[in-house]
Specification:
single chain, five-stranded parallel sheet, 36% helix
């Protein structure tokens, strides 16, 4: 068995069942705040908006903010390494956006890693071992991982099927848990006027 396979097997071994009194025996420290007051390490988050509303721009600007410990949408961030997983933009367009953000913010993307997966058909779970290996090479965990956009990592699952989407949501949680990073993905609204729809129900597909 390879070292990576051994680590993956250990990672999938469930933790033991413990008494609640043991769980309460000592304080559990709060996970680091990646976006202070909004996003902690190990949490899964979603940025949903209408098509062409600028979701990828917003997430790239978040990557720049975290990589530099700067503010994002009036929230202070904590400086850390970021992985942006691009599954939609052509390499040329992604590079142009990075140039624009570098010039506009005056900040360099020194702590941002890019993974260009446009045209690849991969689930979030399939990405996890590669992300873990990248963290080992870097010598530190990622603070923030951004798979963009979410629908590109469904592995052909039906967007309107709750049981299918539960798999993707579970994989995002697994990625956050195993990497200890905050994970935020972009998702699109369903078509039509959403002004009379609660914000929690505007995202396209199953309620999951």
């Amino acid at each position: 068995m390879s070292e990576q396979n051994r680590k993956d097997r250990v990672a999938h071994t469930p933790p033991p069942i413990i008494p609640a009194l043991d769980f309460l025996a000592g304080p559990i420290p709060e996970p680091p705040q990646v976006v202070c007051g909004a996003i902690r390490a190990g949490q899964v988050n979603m940025l949903a908006a209408s098509s062409k509303a600028g979701k990828s721009w917003a997430l790239l600007s978040l990557a720049y903010a975290v990589a530099n410990g700067a503010e994002w949408l009036d929230w202070q961030t904590t400086k850390g390494r970021v992985l942006y997983i691009n599954a939609e933009l052509q390499a040329y367009d992604l590079q142009r956006r990075l140039i624009v953000l570098t010039e506009a913010t005056g900040r360099k993307p020194e702590l941002i890693d890019l993974w260009h997966l446009r045209g690849q058909d991969r689930t979030i779970r399939a990405l996890i071992p590669h992300v873990m290996a990248a963290q080992e090479r870097n010598g530190c965990p990622y603070s923030l991982i951004i798979p963009d956009p979410l629908y590109c990592f469904g592995g052909g699952r039906d967007e309107n099927d709750n049981s299918e989407q539960a798999k993707t949501m579970g994989e995002l949680s697994e990625m956050a848990e195993r990497t200890t990073a905050a994970v935020i993905a972009a998702h699109h609204f369903s078509k039509g006027n959403k002004s009379n729809v609660d914000h929690l129900d505007r995202a396209s597909g199953a309620g999951m």
